[in-house]
Design brief:
It is built from 15 helices and 9 strands. The chain starts with a strand and ends in a 5-residue tail after the last helix. 42% of the residues lie in helices and 12% in strands.
Length: 352
Amino acid sequence: MTKHALIVGATGITGSNLAELLLAAGDWGVSGLSRSVSPIAGVQTLQCDLVDPDSVRGALLGLRPSHVFITAWSRQETEAENCKVNGAIVRNVLDGLQGASVGHVALTTGTKHYLGPFESYAKTQPETPFREEQERLPGENFYYVQEDEVFAAAARDGFTWSIHRPHTLIGYAVGNAMNMAATLAIYASICKETGRPFIFPGSPQQWQATTDVTDARLLARHLRWAATTKEAANLAFNVVNGEVFRWKWLWPRIAAYFGIEAAPYSGAPDPLENQMAGADEIWNGMVRKYDLQPNALSRVASFWHSDADLGRQVETFNDMGRSRKLGFMDYQDTTQSFTDAFDRLRADRIIP
């Protein structure tokens, strides 16, 4: 075993896909820092409260990982609180590892680096495609605070770092606040069960504009690549599938997977939170009818987050030139990103 990874947020969509990838390689040991126990065989779970420095320090006592992957965040009511809490998560972990001879730290943030936080999300239109060298937006953004914590600890402790900025993450996860694949799968399944129209919930701009997404498996490969490639040290990277699409093209393909028709787009947003208000009993009935895992609707679908992504009124896609120039050439078909996630959700009895 030549490398040992500490994955902060090992049970989330990014952390779980990364853990599976590293363990499959055979030359990584994997520890996971999280509140809950990882269900992945081979992950050594270290349970703690990431916001509590003493809890984190105790969980990390004696651990000497060669690589640290920070994939966790906690949603708060305001961006000021997001900055305080999520900055503390990074600081607590890196302070807890001071003196452990860590070689590399990778931090996963996202496209809100270019679009701003939830409170002012997509209120400006940065030039597209987004490029890593674009200046930070004015105002508070917890991604910037997390980056600065990594930079400060690297200067103190001498490790190399990488910053990874995926767009909308697509992949298998349950109980994740940012999982559009599960959210759309639940929505489509309820539409099929009830005969409701499968309505694109977003803005006319998102229906028409060029966009992209990030497969969680590709992000995991990118994290591993940057952490083990000398030329990628101390750089920030966009991470997307490598193709662009329009939702007016993808929406009927998602509908076809579930054996339903996509409703004609009305030209105005119809948010999922409104469409699915009061759908808990419908979902609970489907869980019983189809013998699904007993997950509450709020655990498997994050309508609010998909509404934020699909409701943007600005064009959003990312340049991958920096990664390509340094040798990361991976590509992922976007339709397959969704259908592979749907297949796994069905196989695990999350959806019917």
